[in-house]
Amino acid sequence: MNKGRLEAFSDGVIAIIITIMVLQLTVPKEPTFAALVPLAPVLLGYLLSFVYVAIYWNNHHHLLTVCDNASGGVMWANMHLLFWMSLIPFVTAWMGNNPGTAIPAALYGVVLLLSAIAYKILQVLVVAAHPDGARLRAAFGSDLKGRLSPVLYLAAIGLAFVSPTISYVVYAAVALVWVVPDRRLERL
């Protein structure tokens, strides 16, 4: 399949994910700043999740620039990634509506972890399908961010049962590391 269809479909799903997240925000009944204070956890959760979705969209775009054609494996790996990303609005709302509680904070991390694993699978399959896979593997290098992120997600999931706030800080720290787009493919 032409990779353009895969990119267009993925862009559409990601746009819907962001739309669902913003539609879950409730407007305060009163037109005051004080009315926004109780919504702070929901708004911060939305901000964090928006950044994560933007990071995936950006890196997905960079990854697919080296994909000549989408094989069946690449298409299914892409669907796998989109599945886990499609759960981000749900866990974001649950976490935002239940600030400081362990299970929503931990499940948020589980979805982030499984999204990261799904992205790695997609990356491996795109490299395997590329005619110059060895050169691509070299461009990816040691992928310290890619290897460290799942470890941090696992730690944050466990820490959610000690202090959900610590989990939120870890999730935000991982996002900050990934805000800078992956330039390794651009150099290639």
TrEMBL record:
Q: Which InterPro entries does the UniProt entry name for this protein? A: TMEM175-like
Q: Which domain of life is it from?
A: Bacteria
Q: Does the keyword Transmembrane apply?
A: yes
Reactions mediated catalytically: K(+)(in) = K(+)(out)
Q: How does it sit in the membrane?
A: Multi-pass membrane protein
Q: Which GO terms describe its molecular function?
A: potassium channel activity; proton channel activity
What are the subcellular locations of this protein? Membrane
* Pfam families per record: TMEM175 (PF06736)
Point out the coiled-coil segments of this chain: none
Residue ranges of the TM segments: 6-26, 33-55, 75-95, 107-131, 151-180
Provide a GO CC annotation, any one. Answer: membrane
Write the record's keywords in alphabetical order, separated by commas: Ion channel, Ion transport, Membrane, Potassium, Potassium channel, Potassium transport, Transmembrane, Transmembrane helix, Transport
Entry's PANTHER family?
ENDOSOMAL/LYSOSOMAL POTASSIUM CHANNEL TMEM175, ENDOSOMAL_LYSOSOMAL PROTON CHANNEL TMEM175
The entry assigns this protein to a family as follows: Belongs to the TMEM175 family.
What is the protein's name according to its record? Putative membrane protein
Organism in which the protein naturally occurs: Shinella fusca
